[in-house]
Design brief:
Nucleotidyltransferase, domain 5, 3 domains, alpha/beta, about 450 residues, 6-stranded mixed β-sheet, about 15% strand
Amino acid sequence: MKDLEDGGKTPDAEAPGSFPGKRRRGKRKAARARAQGRAAAGGGVAGAEKPDANPQDGQKRRRKKRRRGRKAYVRDAGNAAAPNIVGKTGDEPTRPAVNGHARSLAPGAAPRPAHRYDQAPYHQPPAYAALDLGTNNCRLLVAVPNRAGRFRVIDAFSRIVRLGEGLTANGRLADDAMARALEALKVCAGKLEARKIARARLIATEACRAAANGAEFIDRVHEETGLALEVIDRETEARLAVSGCGSLVERETRGVVLFDIGGGSSEIALIDISRRRSRRLANHIVSWTSLPVGVVSLSERFGGRHVTPEIFAAMVDDVVGMIDAFDGRDRLGAVATGEGFHLLGTSGTVTTLAGIFLDLPRYDRRRVDGLWMNDVDVDRMVETLVGWGFDERVKNPCIGADRADLVLAGCAILEAIRRTWPATRLRVADRGLREGILTELMAEDRVWDRDRRARSHVS
């Protein structure tokens, strides 16, 4: 059946007792007779510029190609705009060539412009950007809103910069660390300049909060890159982490302890959704804390290269003491002991554990993000890592040299959290602050509300 947009007609229903095969052969014979008649009258077919060509040979070739299920195309030297056109009669209008082939239009129809793949035929949604300069990493996400409260990432960047290296001992950002961060930020600035960004939020966290020269570094970043970084407080950091992970909390869940193990601090939020649930998960935070410890600071205090079981146990006890000083740790009450309760971790520590658990030859975010691990699995992975030496950690494709001296400090913080809030299940999130920023920016601009109104208007 021909495409109606190409000028074809809907086929009539078959008459009782008719045979479609015979009808098609009859139509082909009639078409050949008409073509021969037009050629004899001087009309010709497209591409019949050679007077000595045998029209029957061309018809046989086209008929043979049709039997193989392909369209036959012949060259028309006189059509420079559309060098390849469908082998139909020359008096039918054609569309401009697309991928080297033009398609015939219905008689009297106006030709449509060729599709340009570098030009979007529809309105492009606005782009939003989120940058997170942490104690260990510099990360950027650029995304456009999608349907149902989601977004589609169109650009991303991540680099380990260790901005907080030496901060615990010296109280200041080191020159080498600032230089690494500035190089990464220049890459981010280039990506932002290359796109039309509707709104952006660029944040810095614990390293710039705690360093005596943190404000000076922020000014230097603005001078050298043009980026205006915002140093956020710990409460905002915890809320953004929750906002970024909302889609990983299922409907039947009643309570969650969400944690973000960073380089210089670790945010913990207690979330009670046992009652009516709103669209924004951050509205259900009943208590939160920010521990002044992360993978960089803890490994610098206890050592990260050669960690014995005794050193690991000392790290866990140190973090447990910090959590015990958190007055709101019991705010979930009975919700923290029911079946609808679980932990939700958003950090390099838990994603690394997940990658090792899956035995990935290389890290794959698509397989890790949203993964469920039970308590036995987590115990086994932590025990395995504690038993590995530094070189073994370096060789693992999900750890590598950049994280080999930090991963056990992260595991110690994880173990302290699990001791305080025992749970049979842990969900892994390869998302966090950047996704939370994007979600909040788009919600403030009500981009999804406009989409819902447009769909309701169409329906």
